[in-house]
Amino acid sequence: MVLLGEVFPNFEAETTEGPIKFHDWLGGSWGILFSHPADFTPVCTTELGAAAQLAPEFAKRGVKMIAVSCDPVQSHKDWIKDIEAYNHLAGAFPYPIIADEERRLAVQLGMLDPDERTAEGLCLTARAVFVVGPDNRLKLSILYPATTGRNFHEILRAIDSLQLTAQKKVATPVNWKAGDKCMVLPSISEDDAKKLFPAGVEVHEVPSGKKYIRTTPQPQ
Ligand code: BEZ
Q: In this structure, which residue's CA is closest to atom 1 in ligand 1?
């Protein structure tokens, strides 16, 4: 398992776009690696289609995309045709899919779902998401069971938050979306907050009298 802040494994793998070494493939960009249980399965077909439709949004944020499951490259390539047809995709499929037939990556990254198995009884990969920063370190991970499809709009929202924190020293509150007010990090002093956020810092009164709830317009 990789923990937040740790260097993501620099694994080597075969993909639908040829062999990769992960850090070289990332090349100092942000990246998202998302796993799915198996090729030619219905929920996965909707998820990979939605991810492909949102590829321009990931590109706008400088985030490279890559998917993985335990099927071989040729199976991925055949399945991509179904994903394209079902989701009405046009043009080249926008991201590679890793073949993890030996389940090496699935084990290394803690992605196996004990409740969902192949006909032979082997565990399938769950629906994991890893967002990796330009420093090759893990910035976010989520893990859904095989039976629950993810929301890729939520993943983009979380990436907006991650990138804002990385660049502007703010945190984002519940249900935040791009453009909403942000929270000043608790570690920032009152004086520094004034300098860092010239658009203004509002300190919200609470019964404890503590001045820890500080909002500021989203820094540009
Ligand atoms: C699916 O993608 O539909 C799926 C895959 C494995 C288990 C359950 C659902």
A: 43
